[in-house]
Amino acid sequence: MTDMSANAASAASAPPATIVVGATSKPGSRRAIEWAVARAASTGARLELLSVVGGAVGAVGEQEVVQRAVDAEEAFLRTEAEALTARGLDVTVRVTHGNPTKELVEASMDAGLLVIGSDHTGGTDKHRGPHGTRIVAGAHCPVVVVPDIDTTGRAGVVVGVDGSEVSHAALAFAAAEASRFGEPLTVVSTWMPVVYTGDIAPYPDMYLTDLQGTTEAFAQSMADEARKSHPHLDVTVHVDEGDPAAVITEVAASARLAVVGTHGRTGLARFLLGSVSTQVLEHLTTVTAAVR
Q: What is the pLDDT of residue 219?
């Protein structure tokens, strides 16, 4: 049995994990809540709606303001939970105050999946900002970032791979998602020639052809890995020259979900993601999962 098959079998026998969603009454949070609800409904997972009231600095009279904000968020989430419970979902509500990044990272320790919203609405001129990427960097479970983009009618899962251990984890996650929804999986890998400066002759055609061929062979091997665990999965590869993040983002623009791998860190370095993950998360074109 392959590692992917073993992991899939283990996941299938385990009880559904909790999905924690960073939920607030702000409009930008709505798509994240809806995505998490759909996921919980399709997997039978328990759902926790978590709201974190931030911004406190210890000013005089601040405690009363914070408490009003907490009460308002709790009232909103309890209304949401009542409606979801009526639909048969197992939902709990938790409202706290403090540093949102810290609180969400801590919540991820006991979660199977953390879902957060994004105010990103598409386009290359808009960025997610450091808040979301810091949560992804510090989280102890996969994180799904849901941009404020209408993905109705989209299908397919796109995963970026580079041969690292985390890209194998991303592939397993992406293949399971695509298989669960009966959608195609696109494995994306890129190559770039050695960069040089100065007046040097053009790259030899043989060199560029070999880079393309070598990368295609690697991507096909990753696609075969996905097929072994999901024999009926429709898997294709997309290999191109260029910046990995830019290519993944472009291919994912028509997909339902994109998946990237990210390395876990400790201490201060924990908040430094790999450049590809960072760039993809800062220029979202679809719902994106970061898997470690």
A: 97
How far is the C-alpha of 18 from the C-alpha of 40, rounded, in Å? 9
Task: Give the separation between CA 114 and CA 48, rounded to whole angstroms.
Answer: 10
Which pTM value belongs to this model? 0.87
Report residues of the chain scoring pLDDT below 70. 1-16, 57, 119-131, 198-200, 264-274
Q: Where do the domains of the chain lie?
A: 13-117, 149-292
Q: How far apart are CA 142 and CA 259, in angstroms?
A: 10
Rg of the chain over all Cα atoms, to the nearest angstrom: 21
Q: What share of the chain is helix, strand, coil (3-state, %, to 5)?
A: 45, 20, 35
Residue 34: CB atoms within 10 A of its CB come to 14
H or E stretch covering 117: strand 113-117
What topology is assigned to 13-117 in CATH? Rossmann fold (3.40.50)
Mapped onto helix, strand or coil, the DSSP state of residue 31 is helix
Task: Name residues whose C-beta falls within 8 Å of residue 185's C-beta, 6 or more positions apart in sequence.
Answer: 156, 157, 158, 159, 174, 175, 178, 179, 223, 226, 233, 234, 235, 236
The pLDDT of residue 11: 43
Percent of the chain with pLDDT over 70: 84
Same fold, 13-117 and 149-292: yes
